């Protein structure tokens, strides 16, 4: 059976369906179960008309995809991107279902997006767009229904506008409806860096199992935003050596090691990463540069059948959602490159969100240090659990298969118990 033929898909959705199909066959899931898991429960499309500062109306399209709620309310970020499509958001919401399930969180999967280049808007236009999006979807979200958070090009300030608009239009003063908020309004300072912290933690634990530890390992990171910067920072603190970084404009390689704080400073001053001392490289060159650990932490499908065979890293840790295609998985496995899958590697973000959400619900009883420990412990536990299952049941496949199998089985069990399947 092919799930792909009759759906007009973005490439990310095609890739996710291929990955789902592959694991479902290994788990011997029935066709109707696979069919059901392949479709979101609901996709909301909205139009936001924005009166621009030049007096003209600009029209933007956005979505919220609610993939599966068998384990709890939908949970996942909202991205602002000029390239985002409905099917991309659908794919990302499916990945959130697996991620939340794998981590044992009480959530289903959701994801949202607005098709916009945020750099093309003034700050007050961005605020009106953010508020317009929430005005359009507020009936479908809530702290027990669907809980948005930051993703690509969205940040705590945008969450603050989302929350304020939600309170105004719904009349519900429910701060747990959004996570990744500023600390002044119920945010958890740890959430800002929890994806990078989780990524570094998983990388460290994985290198202890697969290589001989993180100390001195040569690391390359694509993308220097929230995930990439904090991953670089924590991995450096843990003893790793970041030798390459990039952003959308290109990157730099320096065998002496890169200081993440100095790169951040450059970016804050509006200077390109390539002004850092070292060899200037394109993103294509960066991905296939010699290193121990490669962390694609920017956008999807960057490692695919055209470049996978040239990857020289021993381990790839997926910081972004979906940076590897299904074809790349096959090639890398044949070449003995270990892949730590996105649903495990970048799940520190949603674990941080979970602590923030629980704190908002319970009245702020978890302190920062405790939250940080909780995230690290959850991540280590999730890796060890995946590793054990892999050794026991799925050792002939890759870690993605093992992680997805654990996640999908949990969702299917919950769905059957609830009578949803
Ligand atoms: N922010 C979070 O908590 C989480 C983010 N993720 C995923 O991580 C990835 C990055 O997200 P953030 O760091 O939050 O985004 P961000 O907007 O903070 O940073 C994105 C970075 O990627 C770079 N970039 C964009 N397009 C690129 C391209 N074509 N080639 C190379 N670099 C490019 C940008 O210049 C920027 O440095 C996304 O896939 C996102 O879905 C996953 C889990 C949680
Ligand atoms: O923090 C969250 O709720 C979700 C973050 C996210 O969108 C992701 O993990 O891809």
From TrEMBL:
Gene Ontology molecular function terms on file: glutamate dehydrogenase (NAD+) activity; nucleotide binding
Keywords: NAD, Nucleotide-binding, Oxidoreductase
Gene3D superfamilies noted in UniProt: Leucine Dehydrogenase, chain A, domain 1, NAD(P)-binding Rossmann-like Domain
Listed SMART domains: ELFV_dehydrog (SM00839)
Positions annotated as active site in the UniProt record: 111 (proton donor)
Highest taxon listed in the record's lineage: Archaea
A Pfam family recorded for this sequence: ELFV_dehydrog_N
Binding site for substrate: 75, 99, 353
Chain residues that bind NAD(+): 195, 226
CDD domains found in the cross-reference section: NAD_bind_1_Glu_DH
Site (Important for catalysis): 151
Protein name: Glutamate dehydrogenase
Organism: Sulfuracidifex metallicus DSM 6482 = JCM 9184
Lineage: Archaea, Thermoproteota, Thermoprotei, Sulfolobales, Sulfolobaceae
């Amino acid at each position: 059976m092919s799930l792909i033929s009759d759906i007009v898909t973005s490439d990310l959705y095609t890739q996710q369906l291929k990955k789902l199909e592959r694991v479902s066959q290994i788990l011997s899931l029935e066709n109707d179960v696979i069919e059901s898991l392949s479709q979101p429960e609901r996709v909301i499309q909205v139009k936001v008309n924005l009166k621009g500062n030049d007096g003209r109306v600009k029209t933007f399209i956005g979505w919220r995809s609610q993939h599966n709620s068998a384990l709890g309310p939908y949970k996942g970020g909202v991205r602002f991107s000029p390239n985002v499509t409905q099917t991309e958001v659908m794919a990302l919401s499916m990945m959130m279902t697996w991620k939340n399930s794998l981590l044992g969180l009480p959530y289903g999967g959701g994801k949202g997006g607005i098709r916009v280049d945020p750099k093309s808007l003034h700050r007050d236009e961005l605020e009106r767009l953010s508020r317009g999006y929430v005005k359009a979807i507020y009936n479908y979200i809530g702290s027990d229904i669907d809980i948005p958070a930051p993703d690509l090009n969205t940040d705590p300030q945008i969450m603050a506008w989302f929350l304020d608009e939600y309170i105004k239009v719904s009349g519900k003063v429910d701060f747990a409806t959004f996570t990744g908020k500023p600390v002044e309004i119920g945010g958890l300072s740890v959430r800002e860096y929890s994806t990078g912290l989780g990524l570094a933690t998983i990388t460290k634990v994985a290198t202890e199992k697969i290589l001989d530890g993180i100390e001195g390992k040569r690391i390359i990171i694509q993308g220097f935003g929230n995930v990439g910067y904090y991953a670089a920072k924590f991995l450096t603190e843990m003893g790793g050596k970041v030798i390459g970084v990039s952003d959308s404009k290109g990157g730099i390689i320096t065998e002496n090691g890169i200081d993440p704080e100095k790169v951040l400073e450059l970016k804050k001053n509006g200077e390109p990463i390539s002004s850092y001392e070292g060899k200037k490289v394109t993103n294509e060159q960066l991905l296939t540069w010699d290193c121990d650990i490669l962390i694609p932490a920017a956008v999807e499908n960057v490692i695919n059948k055209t470049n996978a065979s040239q990857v020289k890293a021993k381990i790839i840790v997926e910081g972004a959602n979906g940076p590897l295609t299904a074809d790349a998985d096959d090639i890398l496995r044949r070449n003995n490159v270990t892949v730590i899958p996105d649903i495990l590697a970048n799940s520190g973000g949603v674990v941080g969100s979970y602590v923030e959400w629980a704190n908002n619900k319970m009245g702020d009883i978890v302190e920062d240090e405790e939250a940080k420990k909780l995230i690290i412990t959850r991540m280590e536990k999730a890796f060890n659990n995946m590793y054990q299952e892999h050794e026991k049941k799925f050792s002939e496949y890759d870690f993605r298969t093992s992680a997805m199998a654990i996640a999908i089985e949990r969702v299917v069990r919950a769905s059957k118990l609830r009578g949803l399947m």
